[in-house]
Amino acid sequence: MSTLPKVAWIGLGIMGSPMSENLVKAGYDVTGHTLEREKLDRLTAAGGTAAASVADAVRDADVIVTMVPASPQVEAVAYGPDGILENAQRGALLIDMSSITPQTSVGLAAAAKEKGIRVLDAPVSGGEAGAIEAVLSIMVGGDQADFDEAKPLFEALGKTIVRCGPHGSGQTVKAANQLIVAVNIQACAEAVVFLEKSGVDLAAALDVLGGGLAGSTVLARKKDNFLRRDFTPGFRIDLHHKDMGIVTDAARTVGAALPVGAVVAQLVASLRAQGDGGLDHSALLRAVERLSGARV
């Protein structure tokens, strides 16, 4: 019998599926629920267990992980008669790894406390590749004791694991992360168009740029996307659009100016409006190409 906590995993999308599978590989008993039958089949093939509902998944779990697209989905699975708070056992630890507003995380923690359920907000960075390779950065908000208890589970999912403060802090740091990533991708996309229009060997240029001060994880991860114009989603424009809304709203609340971030947020929104919302966020390159006169 495993001494590891029993885990319920809610949300088996691009990130959630490989993350839950990494927990199975680490020896955890994982029961998952999502709306797509093929994702449940994938989990069972990896050694997990499928549940027909959120309530069934969480009823006997020691730890519940949610990994869904946005605040409305978190609220949908957390609240109501069939939700987590009404069906999880007292003392369970709810870890929300979705990227949502800090306010939603704070509200969820308060509501869960009334039910005797502990909460951590623990959004991640690293994209699909980071999820598959279990090298995600995990930024956590919540009580220190709960963070310490969850640390072994986090270590099966990521490499950089940091408690950033009380409830909502993880989401605040994730919002800053998404701001930096979007601005970085935009800068890389502009450089790619500039280099190509200048007749430079793009592959060679990106190699040398990656080895200097201009190098970044974004450039390393997205270089092939730019070279091949392969925008298969690892993190969709639709989701980054949502995240840019979170960071611009949160910044307004605290009185922080985001002049460059605001421009990039509008570029992300325009790309989505042109029908590219389902593409990887490296497709910001398409927006720069359009602005530069290309037909894409």
Number of helices: 14
> Separation of termini?
56 Å
- The overall pLDDT average reads 97
Envelope shape = globular
Percent of sequence in beta strands: 5-15%
Strand-and-helix sequence, N→C? EHEHEHEHHEHEEHEHEHHHHHH
Q: Unreliable segments (pLDDT under 50, ≥5 consecutive)?
A: none
Number of strands: 9
Q: Quickly give the structural class.
A: alpha/beta
Rg (C-alpha, Å): 20 Å
Short recap of the structure:
The protein is built from 14 helices and nine strands. It has helices spanning 16-25, 37-45, 54-58, 71-78, 84-87, 102-114, 127-133, 144-155, 169-197, 202-210, 217-228, 237-254, 259-276, 284-291; strands at residues 7-10, 30-33, 49-50, 63-66, 93-96, 118-121, 124-125, 136-141, 158-165. It is globular.
Fold and architecture overview:
By secondary structure, the chain is an alpha/beta fold. The protein has 14 helices and nine strands. Helix 12 packs antiparallel against helix 13. The radius of gyration is 20 Å and the shape is globular.
Protein topology:
Layout: E1 7-10, H1 16-25, E2 30-33, H2 37-45, E3 49-50, H3 54-58, E4 63-66, H4 71-78, H5 84-87, E5 93-96, H6 102-114, E6 118-121, E7 124-125, H7 127-133, E8 136-141, H8 144-155, E9 158-165, H9 169-197, H10 202-210, H11 217-228, H12 237-254, H13 259-276, H14 284-291
Parallel strand pairs: 1-2, 1-4, 2-3, 4-5, 5-6, 8-9
Antiparallel strand pairs: 7-8
Features:
single chain; 296 residues; alpha/beta; six-stranded parallel β-sheet; three-stranded mixed β-sheet
